[in-house]
Structure formats: C-alpha cells, structure tokens
C-alpha cells in the first residue's frame, strides 16, 4: 500500500491528482521554502500564465519564471511578497512497485484541514457513482471517502457525483484487486468553505432521463447521532427531478425526529422519512439528512437511508396561482382524465394524481406537459346557514364560479351543497324561463342540466332538470339539498349566467311542491321524485298546475309502478285549485284513468309504506282547446283504420297457412302494435283471446266514400277484451275503444270524464 500524507496549512492550496501510479500536486507558498526532495518525486514551480506581477523564483542567485527542483535539500526564495498568488507548484510522485502488482492494493490519501475547515475533493473529470458496500465496480476500481470515523460512501467511477466537501479530516482510498493494472484517474483537492454538515456531495444530473441511487453515510449501519449530511443536486434545464425513498430505518429519538430537509428556490421543506418526497422538481435543490439525538436505551436503533433520484425531461410547464382567500366554502377538485397521461399535476411543489384546492387560501399549482382536455375539474360550493339560527334568505343565485384562465381542465360538474336551517324548505327557481324535467333517455336543449338531490338520509335524487320549461318553482321540504350542474356537451366554464335562484323558506305541507305553467299543445311530462325509483315512504308531492280558462288539460298517467301497501293507500288526487272538489282519485289497487280537467288544479300524490314494489308515476299534461280535441278524434280514427288494415292484412296472410292462429304472451300483457296504452292487469280478465270480427260491423259506419268495404273478406283480428286507452302522441287525445260485443266505440275525453 502507498500512504501519502499531505498537511494543509491555512495559506497553502494543494491539488492532488492520480496519474499512472503517480501523484501530482500544486501549491504556492511563502517567500522562502526549504524542501527535502526524494528521488521518486519531481516538483515544478511555474509562474501562472495569467499572473500580472513579474515575480521570480530563485535557487541561490539563479532566478527565473519557473524551476524544476533538484533532489535533496533545497531552499527556494521568491522575489515578491505573495508568491502563492503567482506561482503554481506541481508535485509529481512516481510510485512503481511492480513486485506488488499481483496483490490487491489500496491507495490512500489522507487529507487534513484545520479544525472547522473543509477540503474539497474535485471529481469533475472522473465522476463518481455511489454503490452499496457489498457491490463492486465494473472496472474493479472501488473508491471510498471518509471523514473521521464516518464513511461517506463507496463509489465507482463514471457517475454524476462531481464534488465532495468534507469536514476537516478525510481519507480517499482506492482499492484495486490483484493482477489488475491501475487505470488513470484524476481528482483534485482544495480548501473549501465552512460547512455545517459532515459533508456536502455535489451531483450534476445528466441532460438525459436518468435515475440513480444514494445511501446515507455508513449504510447499512447507522448514520452518526445528531449529525447532518447534504446532497446538492444540479438539475439541467427542462429536467424535473423526483426523490423516492427505497429503504430506510429510523432511530428512536430523544428530541425531534430524523428528517429530510429540502432547500428549493430559497424555501425549506421538511419531510419525514416515511412521507412522500420531492416530486417533479425543476432546478437545483439541496437535500439534507438530519439525525436526531438518539434514545440510548436498548435495543439500539439506527438511521439509514437509501434513496433514488430520477430526472425526466418535460417540455412545458404552466404555473397557476389560485387565490381563493376571498372565497368561502369553495372547493376545486382537479383530476386527470386518463391516469396514464403524461400530464403532471403539482400542488405547492408536490406532484399529485389529483389536486383539491380550498377557499380561504392561495394554492400554487403547476401543470407539466398537460393539455386542457387531459384534466377534469369539479367544483363544490357550500351555502350554509349559520348553525342554530333560523336563517331564511331568498334569491341567492347559483352561478358557475369564475375560474382563473391558467387553471387547466374541463369543468364537468359544479355541485352546490345547500345547508338550510332546521325544518325548512329549499325553493329553487330558474331565472332562465322555468325548468323542464329531464327523464332518462331524454336530452336537454340548454348548455347544462341540473340534478337535485337530497343529502339525507341516503342521497335521493329528486330529479333532473333542463333549463326552459313549464316548471316555475320547485319546493323541497329538506334541511340539506345538493344541486349539481353538468354540461350538456362541453364545458361549464362558458356559462356565466345564473343557473338557479335559491331561497331558504318556511316549511311547506308537502314533501315536494312543483309549480307548473304548461303551454298549449306542448305535452309536459312530470315524474315523481326519485323517478325511476320510488318515492320515499309516506312522502307527498304536489304539482300546482295553472292555466287559462280558454283551454283544458288532458292528464294521463302513463307509467305507474305496481306496489302493495302495508297500511295506508298510495294515492293520486286531482283537485280544483281553491276548492275541495276532487276531480279524480286513484289508489294503488285501481286502474288509473286519463282525465280532462277544465281549470287550474292540484295534482297530489302520496306514498304509503310499501310492502312490495315502490311508488313512481310519470304524468303527462297537455293543454288543448276543445276544437283541437275534435280534430284529434278525426286523425285518430284514420290512424285506427290504417292500423286495423295492417293487422288484418297480416292476419290474413298467416291464415293462409293455418286456420287457427294463436299467440302466447308470457307476460300477460297484450298490446296492440303501436298502441302504448296502459295494460289492464286485473286477474279475471283474459288477455289471450282471439276474436273474430266482421269488418263491416267494425268500421262500416265509420267509413265514408272512397273505401270499398267488400274488398275485405272475413278474417280474424286478435284483441283483448276490456278498455284500453291510447294517448295520441301528437295532441294528447285519449281514444277509448270498447271492444265488447264486437263494437268499437269512440269516446271523446269529455264523454269519458
Ligand atoms: C511547469 O513547468 C514544467 C517545465 O517547464 C512543465 O514540464 C510542467 O508541465 C509545468 N507545470 C504546470 C502545471 O504548468
Ligand atoms: C456544491 O454544493 C454546494 C451546496 O449547494 C454549493 O455551495 C457549491 O457551490 C457546489 N459546488 C459546485 C462545484 O457546484
Ligand atoms: C432494507 O434495509 C434492510 C435493513 O438495512 C435490509 O435488510 C433490506 O435488505 C433492505 N432492503 C432493500 C430492498 O434494499
Ligand atoms: C363534491 O361534490 C361531489 C358531487 O356531488 C361529491 O361526490 C363530493 O363528495 C363532494 N365533495 C365534498 C368534499 O363535499
Ligand atoms: C345537514 O348537513 C350538515 C352539514 O353536513 C349536517 O351536520 C346535518 O346533520 C345535516 N342535516 C340533516 C337533517 O341531515
Ligand atoms: C294538494 O296540494 C295542495 C298544495 O300543493 C294543497 O293545498 C291541497 O290541500 C292538497 N290536497 C289534498 C287533498 O291533499
């Protein structure tokens, strides 16, 4: 082994390089030096080419700009006061031990600075890469750097560690296995600045996607008690670094905790070892591992850390500071549309899969490689009455909150959480010309649709609504209500007008009241709350339907669910406004009827406690003048005739094959094709009977000129007995066919009512 000690004095500056089993040093000294030179060493004292002063170096009386010292004791004198500013000293040590070549060899450089001072090891030319103590290097040249009794690490050549600053006393050793030639490598030594840690390791990440591992000093044994080590990373432009802890052990601490401290852009961020670390950080950063004062009690615990630093090139970064300090109860949630997208979301310097920002503070966001359509935004806004106060307010507008342009993402939902005072009613009105109930399968014309839900007890959806329709007001007897707006296609951000006006009012008598102003000739569909699921047990709903006396309303119940009640009835009642006159009533064990109402009315429904099934109804209201009704009858008759014609033709064709045709309908419902009436489901009726109808009898009295009756021969038409109704889709006419006695009778809604 070769051992070479270099003593550092304050005013001396050395650099040692290792070259072909030789050591080279530089120094500059005081005005006079006495040096005893061995034959294996060569020293050059050269004036620096950049020196301004004309200082000379003299041996005896012979002075020149540079000298090569002879062997043996020699005195050197300088012609100026501070020759160290002007001269460079090169010390070349020739170490040739061919006889030791077969042995494994360790070359050690002991470097000492004065107390509190540091020396700097410059590995710029080789670069080092830290390895696990049990690992070896490809070229079998293993370096070890220590300070005092602490081993900073074990390294191979060709890495990203360019420099180390080590506190006052250090050792660099190089181990080469037997039978292997020492390969040239150079490192420099110089005095460093004062530091507060055990050492600083400078790493320059390459300008390519990279990943490398680092270990705490003494790994896998404990990092010294109460001490600090720092890694200083230089990240090339456009690269983003992420720190990931691969393995760690934590000591039991007497005071404070072992921690990692990041210095980034002048900020200090402290992280515990078990926390998520720095992610996607651009620019340089320092990372310090700080140990605590350990608890001395057995069993001993230790601090060790293995971490990876990776860097990836990114092409764009958008910064966005969202100031919500003046907002209240606002929450913005950002998520990636596809989790696999390259887009990186950061909140306050931390990369996150999803980001939630809250009101009353400023959030610092950054979007790396993100496109607007990569991200989805949702907003929650809370409107609450202060607790315990009887707060009634009116006309609060629900508007899509304006978002900063820099906040990327498609706004796909805004949810308002309305917390009223106890036992109140939430009243919703559209400032945009009413609301239309949106039933499954339908679409909205407007740019957004609204979903109204009750929070309690289990998040019931009251209904979905489109802007512009006959529903003027929705009153819901709840304390907490949720209203969500979703875009009808694009982005909610473009909507600047208020979507709803909300008032918290006094309690109403029904669970729900809808105020409806239908327009003439436009069918209004009204579904019970929670459609298609049933209403809550014992809940009631009322539609206040108001229209002018010039028209009459045709009311149909197209879709009533089947249910069995435990005690009370589930019922539907139609009642004249401002009077107790019942125009119609229905209980769950009856067949519903379509009716015509001549003046404004209440349509009230109440649920029972269902034993089986649930209570849900879709009602259809159409306003018409009496004249329209007549026109409809004529149209309906023509349609019916055509229909029978089609049926007869079909049946006739079938008859040619078999004289007896039979159809089995396993559901027990028989519908005429094209007629979507209400099925008659009373058990004592037989739905599966075919009946022979004489053409002439059926429509002889209806047909006018232009149609030859006798072109029809006798044939079978299948029909079921009883009454069925058909809502004529254009005008809402009810056509009632009485099929008994082989007659069809047409009744106007008036006759029916
Ligand atoms: C110093 O001068 C000698 C002789 O001129 C030369 O061989 C050597 O490379 C020089 N050293 C430096 C560091 O310039
Ligand atoms: C090494 O890192 C320290 C701490 O960040 C810094 O002061 C020093 O200038 C760095 N050295 C080099 C060569 O980058
Ligand atoms: C993590 O550290 C423990 C203790 O030092 C060690 O036993 C284990 O092998 C390490 N695991 C990995 C994946 O390095
Ligand atoms: C925000 O609103 C959505 C949709 O209603 C809901 O699922 C979510 O729980 C809400 N978040 C908070 C924090 O209230
Ligand atoms: C309404 O919401 C508030 C806040 O979430 C909650 O504390 C309260 O219990 C809810 N009230 C009812 C009746 O559900
Ligand atoms: C129907 O509802 C209205 C309120 O919408 C109410 O005034 C009326 O009393 C209710 N009628 C019945 C029979 O419950």
UniProtKB/TrEMBL annotation:
Taxonomic superkingdom: Eukaryota
Domain CDCP1 third and sixth CUB: residue ranges: 200-301, 510-622
Keyword annotations: Membrane, Transmembrane, Transmembrane helix
Residue stretches making up the CDCP1 second and fifth CUB domain: 96-191, 404-480
Residue ranges of the TM segments: 629-651
Keyword Membrane: yes
Pfam family, one: CUB_CDCP1_2
UniProt key word Nuclease: no
UniProt-recorded name of the protein: CUB domain containing protein 1a
Native species: Electrophorus electricus
């Amino acid at each position: 082994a070769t051992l070479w000690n270099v003593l550092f004095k304050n005013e001396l500056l050395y650099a040692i390089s290792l070259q072909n089993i030789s050591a080279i040093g530089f120094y500059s000294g005081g005005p006079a030096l006495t040096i005893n030179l061995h034959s294996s060493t060569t020293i050059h004292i050269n004036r620096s080419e950049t020196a301004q002063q004309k200082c000379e170096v003299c041996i005896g009386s012979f002075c020149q700009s540079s000298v090569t010292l002879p062997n043996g004791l020699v005195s050197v004198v300088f012609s100026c006061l501070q020759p160290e500013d002007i001269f460079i000293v090169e010390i070349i040590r020739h170490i040739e031990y061919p006889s030791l070549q077969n042995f494994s060899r360790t070359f050690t450089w002991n470097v000492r600075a004065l107390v509190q001072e540091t020396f700097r090891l410059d590995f710029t030319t080789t670069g080092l890469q830290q390895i696990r103590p049990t690992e070896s290097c490809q070229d079998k040249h293993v370096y070890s750097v220590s300070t005092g009794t602490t081993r900073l690490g074990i390294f191979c050549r060709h890495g990203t560690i360019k420099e180390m600053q080590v506190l006052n006393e250090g050792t660099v050793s190089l181990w080469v296995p037997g039978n292997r030639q020492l390969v040239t490598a150079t490192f420099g030594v110089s005095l460093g600045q004062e530091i507060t840690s055990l050492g600083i390791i400078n790493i320059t990440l390459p300008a390519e996607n990279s990943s490398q591992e680092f270990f705490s000093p003494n790994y896998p044994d404990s990092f010294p008690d109460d001490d600090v080590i720092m890694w200083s990373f230089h990240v090339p432009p456009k690269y983003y670094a992420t720190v990931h802890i691969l393995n760690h052990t934590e000591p039991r601490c007497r005071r404070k905790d072992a921690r990692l401290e990041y210095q980034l852009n002048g900020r200090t961020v402290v992280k515990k070892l078990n926390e998520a670390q720095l992610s996607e950080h651009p620019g340089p950063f320092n990372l310090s591992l700080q140990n605590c004062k350990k608890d001395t009690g057995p069993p001993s615990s230790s601090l060790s850390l293995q971490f990876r630093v990776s860097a990836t090139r990114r092409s764009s970064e958008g910064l966005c500071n969202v100031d919500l300090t003046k907002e209240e109860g606002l929450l913005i949630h950002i998520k990636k549309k596809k989790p696999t997208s390259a887009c990186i979301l950061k909140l306050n310097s931390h990369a996150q899969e999803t980001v939630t920002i809250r009101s009353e503070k400023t959030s610092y966001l950054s979007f790396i490689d993100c496109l607007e359509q990569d991200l989805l935004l949702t907003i929650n806004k809370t409107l609450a009455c202060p607790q315990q106060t009887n707060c009634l307010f009116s006309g609060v507008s629900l508007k899509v909150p304006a978002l900063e342009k820099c906040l990327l993402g498609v706004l796909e939902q805004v949810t308002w959480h309305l917390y009223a005072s106890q036992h109140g009613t939430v009243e919703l009105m559209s400032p945009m010309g009413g609301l239309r109930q949106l039933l499954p399968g339908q679409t909205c014309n407007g740019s957004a649709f609204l979903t109204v839900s009750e929070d309690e007890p289990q998040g019931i959806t009251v209904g979905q609504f489109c802007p512009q329709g006959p529903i003027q007001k929705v009153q819901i007897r709840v304390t907490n209500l949720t209203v969500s707006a979703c875009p009808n296609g694009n982005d909610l951000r473009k909507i600047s007008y208020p979507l709803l006006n909300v008032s918290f009012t006094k309690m109403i008598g029904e669970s729900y009241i809808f105020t409806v102003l239908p327009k003439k000739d436009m069918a209004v569909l009204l579904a019970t709350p929670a459609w298609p699921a049933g209403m809550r047990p014992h809940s009631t709903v009322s539609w206040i339907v108001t229209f002018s006396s010039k028209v009459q309303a045709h009311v149909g119940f197209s879709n009533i669910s089947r249910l069995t009640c435990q005690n009370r009835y589930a019922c539907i009642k139609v009642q004249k406004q401002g009077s107790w006159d019942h125009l119609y009533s229905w209980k769950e064990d009856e067949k519903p009827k379509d009716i015509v109402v001549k003046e404004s009315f209440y349509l009230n429904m109440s649920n029972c406690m269902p034993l089986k099934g649930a209570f849900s109804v879709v009602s259809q209201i159409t306003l018409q003048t009496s004249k329209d009704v007549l026109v409809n009858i004529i149209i309906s008759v023509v349609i019916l005739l055509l229909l029978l014609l089609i049926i007869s033709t079909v049946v006739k064709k079938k008859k040619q094959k078999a004289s007896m045709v039979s159809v089995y309908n396993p559901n027990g419902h028989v519908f005429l094709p094209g007629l979507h009436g209400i099925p008659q489901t009373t058990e004592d009726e037989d739905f599966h009977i075919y009946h022979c109808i004489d053409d002439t009898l059926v429509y002889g009295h209806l047909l006018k000129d232009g149609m030859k009756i006798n072109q029809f021969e006798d044939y079978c038409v299948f029909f079921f007995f009883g009454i069925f109704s058909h809502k004529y889709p254009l005008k809402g006419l009810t056509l009632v066919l009485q099929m008994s006695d082989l007659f069809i009778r047409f009744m106007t809604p008036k006759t029916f009512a």
